Amino acid sequence: MAICVAIIGKDNSPKYFACSNPDDEINLQYKVLSSLDVIEEKLNTANKVTDFRELFLGTLYSLESHKIYGYVTNTKIKFIIVVDSTNTALRDNEIRSMFRKIHSIYADNICNPFHIPGEPITSKSFHDKATSIMFGTV
Known about the structure:
The protein is α+β, with helices and mostly antiparallel strands.
């Protein structure tokens, strides 16, 4: 179970943010936005080493209370998931699966003719699907 899901645009502007505890939202936003530096570093290193890259970046960094994972699309849209570090049941393949599902619903959302490109995601159906993925009910 994730405690936070965030989607960051290619210009590092937040497009979507959801967390399980609204009282901890500011703290989680800080952690998510600070992880963007790690993503940029991993992308720059990966581009110099190889021409192809894996979308899943793995663990960006681990804190006492949280683990932060990253995923980047070919169009430089960044997906970030924060999980509780006491949750040892989650493995990398389950995190990958969560990212694939979020990427899929993101693609469905931006293909909507009523979605304005570059604007934050405000769709209720997207939020419902993202939170169900976050809580592991899908």
